[in-house]
Amino acid sequence: GARCIDRARSIRRLERRTMPLEQALDALNLRRVTVDEKTGACEVSFRWTQRSLSPMGIFWGGVQLAWGFALVHYIFYGLFASIFIYAYGRHDWRVLAACVAAIALYLPSFLDGSEFKLGRPWDALRTHPIWALSQAYFPARLIRTTPPLDPEKKYVFGWHPHGILILSRIHVYGGVWETLFPGVDVRVLGASPMFKVPGCREICLWMGAVDAGRKTAERVLRAGKSMAVYPGGSVEIFDTDPNSRETRCHLTRRKGFVRLAMAHGASLVPVFVFGEKRCYRRLNVPSKMRHWLLRTLKIPLIVFWGRWFTWYPIASPQTVVFGAPIAPPALETGTTPTETQVDELHARYTAAVVELYEKHKADAGYGPEETLKIV
N or C: which end of the chain has fewer CB within 10 A? Predict the structure, then answer.
């Protein structure tokens, strides 16, 4: 009784605080949704309009800069906290005591193993309209080439290429995923080191990421959820070259996600990202050093920078295209797919990725000199 009433009042107070913010963001008119009535295809696009160039729009542009700058450097949150503790804690025992208490309170969350389960998504943040500020910055455009997918089925979305910081993930936040794929609950497989860094760990979990280990992936699919994977993995980071006219996707030997999809009856959905490679400049690091770090410590070493020599990306239009789902062959209960079956489905999927690239590259701003190489 009384507890429910108090909770209802709290929700109403929260709505009163958040509605003006959401209304202000909606007033910028940054987002467009168009649906093809004949094919069922859907496009979500973002752009700054004349209304967004008003004094209020300029204000929100500053908000976007601060928001985006803080967000893109999330991997350094733990480092910043350590510097703060060292700089102030050693001179003031009260600051040190407060920091120690904060760490003690944080440890249970850090050690709870959420990344090996179904994650810890924070839907209110992931679907908040503030993401439209970042989506309009590039600007972004997302295209679903098919009618809405059946939410009762499971899917494995394969994203290509990986990119340096996977900026394309930002474009499905703010309710965009729910617009394109209503009812499809998805988890993103992320590299294990991302969950070992304080701050970075929370951002990943809140945005729906889980550990990329096979056991975790199987747990996600057994729970009836879909998942997003980056088959090229960290090695594709080194192939992200803004000056190259060749886009390289490491896919020839990447068959684990295909085998996993077949074992759990999940359809494969190819996804191609255009334009992300132009968001950063990079310095070539000696290959022997890179390979040793990646093989030994699972850390991709790459020196790159965006605007002002930071990780804040250079504005470059990005187009994300979702292809048609490829259904796996039916397997008898208790059986595993044969290598021949895996190879056949993998070949179909690879052909679909190439077709997606060739069909949409011109519309995404790639010239005829741009090519895709599957390695």
Answer: N
Contacts 24+ apart (CB under 8 A), 361-366: 361/274, 363/319, 364/274, 364/275, 364/317, 364/319, 364/321, 365/274, 365/275, 365/317, 365/319, 366/274
Q: Give the predicted TM-score (pTM) of the model.
A: 0.88
Question: CB of 164 within 8 A of CB of 135?
Answer: no
Q: Quick: pLDDT tens for 315-360.
A: 999 999 999 999 999 888 778 899 999 999 999 999 999 999 999 9
Residue with tokens 């021949």: 340
The DSSP secondary structure of 54-75, one letter per residue, reads SHHHHHHHHHHHHHHHHHHTGG
CA distance 328 to 252: 18
What's at 142, amino acid-wise?
L
Label the pairing between strands 186-190 and 318-322: unpaired
Q: Among 126, 139, 74, which residue's Cα sits nearest to residue 312?
A: 74
**Sign of CA pseudo-dihedral 140, 145, 147, 151:** negative
pLDDT digits (tens, 9 = 90+) for 224-283: 999 999 999 888 988 898 989 999 999 999 999 999 999 999 999 999 999 999 999 988
CA–CA dist 188, 115 (Å, integer): 10
- C-beta neighbour count of 4 within 10 angstroms: 8
Specify whether the CB–CB gap between 141 and 172 falls below 8 A.
Answer: no
Burial class of 216 by CB neighbour count within 10 A (0 to 12, 13 to 18, 19+): buried
Q: Are strands 318-322 and 140-144 parallel, antiparallel or unpaired?
A: parallel
Q: What is the DSSP string of 185-243?
A: -EEEEE-GGGGSSTTHHHHHHHTTEEE-SHHHHHHHHHTT-EEEE-TTGGGGGGG--TT
The whole-angstrom separation of Cα 287 and Cα 284 is 8
| CB 233 within 8 Å of CB 162 | yes
Residues with Cβ within 8 Å of residue 7, at least 6 apart in sequence = none
Q: Residue 373, CB half-sphere, CA atoms under 13 Å: how many?
A: 11
Distance CA 233, CA 227 (A): 15
Q: Is 278 left (phi over 0), alpha (psi -120 to 50) or beta?
A: alpha
